[in-house]
Structure formats: structure tokens, C-alpha cells
């Protein structure tokens, strides 16, 4: 493995990141670009091609390129690699992204949903590795709500690659906010950064902050209306997590994405609601006195732990870099890097 490297692509609705990676070095070189959706799909594909080919020229000594992994917003049908009405890539419905990239690069690639790749990275390089857990669920609270599931070290795809769409669990009744998926009342409409700004606008009028981060700062300063938005987020997130916990009974659920920076604002309400709603959580709640830190062997593997994700904004990119190795090993345990080189 130390004689190879991979290239990962993290395709987002706003930003495009491409990186080279080796297990013994971590991320090596990283390229960040805007995703030029307004210029069409072909332009975005060309930008990916040019960045990948540029990194592929760097052999990093005599290392061999082991593969290229691509993460894209879902829903993504697998193994075909066709996008199905992705809310965060307007105009890309039924676009065969896998074929377009393989033609552009003139080689086979591996493709996955970005949320699955964030979960893959957390399992092998993040919280899963920290706590010795190979089955977990990740919820990323960003522009939307992404979800990835790892069972016994492997990505859970479902029948068509669309397993793990928990962002579209219904948390409000039919009168709930309309969602880009075509439904109403989805978790994504109540727990994403976009949703927080919308809810704040409804409660605060013209004085609403322009971003979820600004809303977080306002809530930290004690603004009661801003604080109430995060209580509402916790309520909706608890409903979604109750469905996941009661159905899956996994040992670890991770909360990531930009909204997770406000953890201290919504976590108390979240846990209170979970105790009230989920009998599985009540039965399996870990000892609140347990110090869940990497240095403490107090992680209770037969309990239900809900923690912050460890890898932050690099999770999806790291997952795309791991994907070729993961595909090669058919989901078996992957080697991990000994240190991380800063790009």
C-alpha cells in the first residue's frame, strides 16, 4: 500500500475538492475550486478531469496510482452511477456521472454518495477507529442532511445504492416544509444549515442572520429567538435519530457537518428528547459520567453512543480517497495512515 496513492474527488453543490492520498502520508496535495453549476455539467466534468490529471502526473516518488474515487451528492443510483434528482445539483437529474467521468479520464473510477464516503472515513480513520467500532451511522448537517451507514466495515447501499437517505425521514406532518426531494416535512428541512436560516427568518423577520454560523454566534450571545431555533433543530433531529436508533440498534451515531459546531446549544435538548421518545435509547444509554475521549477505554460497545464526528470537513474528501482501496478490499479492514501531511 505504501507504494501506491489514490486521488479523491469531493463534488459538492458549491465547492469541488480534489486530493491525492497515501495511507502512510494522509492527504498529500489538495485542490479546491468552485463548482460552476451555472456553466453546465460539462464544465464541471472538465474541471474534475483537469484537476485529477494534474495530480496524477505527480508520482510522489515511484508510487503507482491505485485508483480514483468520486463522491457526489445523492440520490446516486449504484452501480450505474446515475444521479436521480439530486436536490443540491439542480439540472443534473438522470445525469450519468460515472460514464461522463470515465470517458473524460479514459479510465475506470469508483463512485459513491458523499455521505457514504464521510461515513467510510469516520469508520476507518475517525471515530470508528478511535473506539474500535466497525458499524456506525453518520448524519452530516450541512447545506442538506446527508446520511451514511457502515455495517461491519462495509458501506450499506440498499438495493439501488440509495440506502442511507435519513435526511428524508419525515419529522413533521404533511403540512411540513416542502423538500427538494418532492416530499414534505423531511429532516433536511429542519436540521440543515439552510433550514436553520429559513426557520430563523420565520421567527426573526428582517433581522435574521445570513448564515447558520452567524445564527450560532447570536444564540451564544443569548438571543432567545436564535436559541429557540437550535431547540427546534434538536427536537427534529431527535425524531430522526429515534427512527434510526429503534430500527438499526447501532452502537455509534455521529453528528457532523457545519451545523454540528452548535453542539452545545442543541445537545441537551436532543438527549432529553431521545430519552423521552426512544425506548431503545433509554435501555442502552451509556453512563453519562463516562469520559468518552480517545485516551479513555470507557466506550461501552453495547450501549448507544451519539457523538460528534471527528474528521470535520475533510471526511468526504478522505472517504473518496479511501474508496479505491475499499473497493479493492471488498470492504475488509483497511490500512490507515501513520500521520497526516498538511496540504
What does this structure look like?
With 343 residues, the chain is α/β, with parallel strands linked by helices. The protein folds into 2 domains: 4-118 and 313-328, Nucleotidyltransferase, domain 5, CATH 3.30.420.40; 131-310, ATPase, nucleotide binding domain (Nucleotidyltransferase, domain 5, 2-Layer Sandwich), CATH 3.30.420. Helices cover 37% and strands 19% of the residues. A 5-stranded mixed sheet has the order 3-2-1-4-7, sandwiched between helices. A 5-stranded mixed sheet has the order 10-9-8-11-12. The chain has a two-stranded antiparallel sheet with strand order 5-6. Helix 7 (212-220) crosses helix 8. It starts with a strand and ends in a 15-residue tail after the last helix. 45% of the residues are buried.
The best one-word shape is globular
Strand and helix order? EEEHEEEHEHHEEEHHHHEHHEH
Beta strand count = 12
CATH topology of the largest domain: Nucleotidyltransferase, domain 5
What can be said about the biggest beta sheet? Answer: 5 strands, mixed
User: In CATH's first tier, which class of the largest domain applies?
Assistant: Alpha Beta
Q: What is the total number of structural domains?
A: 2
* Regions with little confidence, pLDDT below 50 for 5+ residues: 291-295, 335-343
Can you tell me the CATH superfamily of the largest domain?
A: ATPase, nucleotide binding domain
Distance between the termini: 20 Å
Helical proportion, percent range: 25-40%
Portion of residues in beta strands equals: 15-25%
Going by helix content, strand content and strand pairing, the class is alpha/beta
Strand order of the largest sheet: 3-2-1-4-7
Computed over alpha carbons, the radius of gyration is: 20 Å
Assign the CATH architecture of the largest domain.
2-Layer Sandwich
Amino acid at each position: 500500500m505504501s507504494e501506491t496513492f489514490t486521488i479523491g474527488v469531493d463534488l459538492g453543490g458549491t465547492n469541488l475538492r480534489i486530493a491525492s492520498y497515501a495511507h502512510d502520508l494522509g492527504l498529500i496535495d489538495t485542490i479546491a475550486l468552485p463548482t460552476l453549476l451555472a456553466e453546465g455539467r460539462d464544465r464541471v466534468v472538465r474541471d474534475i478531469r483537469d484537476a485529477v490529471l494534474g495530480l496524477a502526473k505527480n508520482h510522489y516518488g515511484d508510487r503507482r496510482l491505485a485508483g480514483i474515487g468520486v463522491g457526489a451528492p445523492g440520490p446516486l443510483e449504484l452501480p450505474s452511477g446515475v444521479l436521480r434528482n439530486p436536490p443540491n445539483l439542480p439540472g443534473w437529474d438522470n445525469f450519468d456521472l460515472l460514464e461522463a467521468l470515465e470517458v473524460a479520464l479514459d479510465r475506470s473510477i469508483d463512485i459513491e454518495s458523499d455521505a457514504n464516503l464521510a461515513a467510510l472515513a469516520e469508520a476507518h480513520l475517525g471515530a470508528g477507529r478511535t473506539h474500535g467500532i466497525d458499524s456506525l451511522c453518520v448524519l452530516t448537517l450541512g447545506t442538506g442532511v446527508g446520511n451514511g451507514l457502515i455495517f461491519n466495515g462495509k458501506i450499506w447501499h440498499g438495493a439501488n445504492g440509495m440506502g442511507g437517505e435519513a435526511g428524508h425521514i419525515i419529522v413533521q406532518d404533511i403540512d411540513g416544509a416542502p423538500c427538494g426531494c418532492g416530499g414534505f416535512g423531511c429532516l433536511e428541512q429542519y436540521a440543515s444549515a439552510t433550514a436553520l436560516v429559513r426557520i430563523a427568518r420565520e421567527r426573526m423577520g428582517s433581522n435574521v442572520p445570513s448564515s447558520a454560523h452567524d445564527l450560532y454566534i447570536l444564540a451564544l450571545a443569548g438571543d432567545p429567538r436564535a436559541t429557540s431555533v437550535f431547540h427546534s433543530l434538536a427536537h427534529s433531529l431527535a425524531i430522526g435519530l429515534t427512527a434510526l436508533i429503534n430500527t438499526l440498534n447501532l452502537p455509534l451515531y455521529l453528528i457532523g457537518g457545519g451545523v454540528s459546531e452548535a453542539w452545545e446549544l442543541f445537545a441537551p435538548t436532543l438527549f432529553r428528547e431521545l430519552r423521552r421518545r426512544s425506548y431503545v435509547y433509554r435501555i442502552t444509554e451509556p453512563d453519562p459520567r463516562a469520559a468518552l475521549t480517545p485516551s479513555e477505554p470507557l466506550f461501552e460497545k453495547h450501549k448507544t453512543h451519539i457523538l460528534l464526528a471527528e474528521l470535520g470537513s475533510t471526511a468526504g474528501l478522505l472517504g473518496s480517497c479511501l474508496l479505491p482501496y475499499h473497493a479493492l478490499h471488498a470492504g475488509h479492514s483497511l490500512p490507515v495512515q501513520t500521520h497526516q501531511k498538511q496540504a
